[in-house]
Amino acid sequence: MLQLAGVSAGYGSFQALFDVSLDVGAGEAVGVIGPNGAGKTTLMRVISGMLPVRAGRIDLEGRALAGMPAHRVIGEGIAHVPENRRLFPGLTVEENLRMGAYIPSARQHVRERLEWVYELFPRLKERRDQIAGTLSGGEQQMCAIGRALMSKPKILLMDEPSAGLAPLVVQQVFGLVRRIREEGFTVLIVEQNVQQVLEVVDRAYLLEVGRIRLSGSAEELKNNDFVRQAYMGI
Amino acid sequence: MMTIRWPLALLFAVLLLLPLGLQDYLLHMAIQILIWGFVYTGWSVMGRFGQVSLGHGAFLGVGAYTTALLWNNFGLVPWIGIPIGVAFAVLLALVIGYPCFRLKVVGHYFALVTLALSQVVLLSIVAARDITGGSLGMTPNSVGQSSWLALQFTSKMHWYFVALAVWAFGLWVWVKVDRGMGRAAMEAVSEDETAAAAVGINVTREKLRVTVISAAMTAFGGALFGQYQMYLNPETLSGIGVSLQIVFAAIAGGMYSLLGPTVGALLTIALTEGLRIGFGTTLIGAANTIYGILLILFIIFMPRGITGFFGAWTKRRAATAAATT
Ligand SMILES: Nc1ncnc2c1ncn2[C@@H]1O[C@H](COP(=O)(O)OP(=O)(O)O)[C@@H](O)[C@H]1O
Ligand SMILES: [Mg+2]
Asked: Domains of chain A by range and CATH?
């Protein structure tokens, strides 16, 4: 469904991604793991059009995305839950969700999508009139995911949904990810929490200093000695 | 909606009848309040979304000088000169805004760019003294009588109604922006640009849109003020001084409410006149210092301006009244 081939990107003279290739099949959940500064966020930003591609191809169902500006990419069916959630802190939960359906193709479906997101996450319905900035960390993540779902994307990009959350809340957030999978969504998720993410994805890639170092099924990576030593502390 | 319509209709009725009872001096004050109220409203069209420009004097100057120069040198009437001046201001806004917004020059950095812009326009006007009269200013050629074509009126009453119409137009634009789809987008942008981009908002375009509207209104107001005064001075129509005055008035009056910028105009005109009458020429230039100090006080104690402050206050009173009955 989503394919990256030989993608390079960077900031100014600094190159952050080198020749990255990966693919995500329809209905699959794929993880990208790697240490801080590996280029995971950069990868997500390149896919969603927030950062230009320097070389390589990005295709969604055969349509070329490279070079498309961010506000068009989302219309193609890619929704991005950015790092650190990035809610509109001064708006209410419902206003945040509504903004998620900003693109023209989603606007006419706001009502039904709201109902659907509220059904998926009843907690958000309870909090619909609360200012998003005052939600707890886990609720904010829920709201950010709900906002992304409002555009009914073909694929959901999640950038470290568990970052900065208490262990118990991390469990809940991975629960949300699992729910979204069960709903049939295709997911590409970036995480530093390797142990947890390998429990919810089908396959994963290991990114180190801008390059894909390893890839394989979740099982393979869980049993890979290098991954176990370097990232799971076993 | 009804709650805002009624008082507004009443206000308009009063404003339509007002000039009948005013002498020329007060009429002069009223005209200035309306024209500057229009300019400040224009500033707040972008300011309310956190796009703080410290350089709106640039647009003021471009509008006023283009109109006057085209009239004096080519005999082009303001009906053509003002649209051209507004077009130049829009072009300038695009030339500055597009790279800033694309390269994510935001917040303080954007404010500094605009501040520099206003000074560049001031210096350009002064440097082109052969045609603009430099720092001595310039006078549009007078036709010696009231003329709609030349947009020159000997009677203040005429000017009052022209200014009133333009001011009302400014309020209409403000409401349009307030109720449009772009408002939600700009509110999202002002909250978090990255998040706004992530939900599919074309951040650059939305910011350019309000910037262009704001610049156009400001240039229009500048041109009108030049016509009214029949005198253009680079210090009063461009540069840092007037730019800061615009910011002060919009913030002090309250940029989040329809009439806030107009209240700001009332305040600045009253302050300027008060200083002039109270201290004569000894305090010339003191106005800017006072604006600066007041601005700091407003930002600290009344960030939503006078109208915002009293709006919240009346709401609280109504709430406590409702709670106690
Ligand atoms: N806006 C930026 N400007 C310059 N360098 C950046 C920027 N954002 C990230 N980088 C650099 O790019 C590299 C990858 O960063 P990032 O993609 O955020 O990594 P990760 O998400 O895996 O922690 C890091 O070395 C980081 O310092
Ligand atoms: Mg990151």
From this structure: 2-86+157-231 (3.40.50.300)
CA distance B213 to B136: 31
Residue B229's domain spans which residues? 24-237
ipTM for the assembly: 0.82
Q: Does A147 touch chain B (CB under 8 A)?
A: yes
The reply to whether residue A102 touches residue B184, judged by beta carbons under 8 angstroms, is: yes
Would you say residue B268 lies in a domain? no
Residue B2: predicted pLDDT: 45
Ligand 1 centre distance from Cα of residue A184 (Å): 31
Beta bridge partners of A58: A4
What digits encode the pLDDT tens for the residues B240-273?
889 999 999 999 999 999 999 999 999 999 988 8
Alpha-carbon distance A36 to B17, whole Å? 69
Q: B297: exposed, middle or buried (C-beta count within 10 Å: 0-12, 13-18, 19+)?
A: exposed
d(CA B98, CA B203): 11
- The torsion of the CA quartet A46, A50, A52, A53, rounded to 10 degrees, works out to 10
3-state secondary structure of A55: strand
Taking the Cβ of residue A41 and every Cβ of chain B, the question of whether any pair is shorter than 8 Å is answered with no
Out of A50, A71, A80, closest to residue B202 by CB: A71
Nearest ligand for residue A209 CA? 1
**Model confidence, pTM:** 0.86
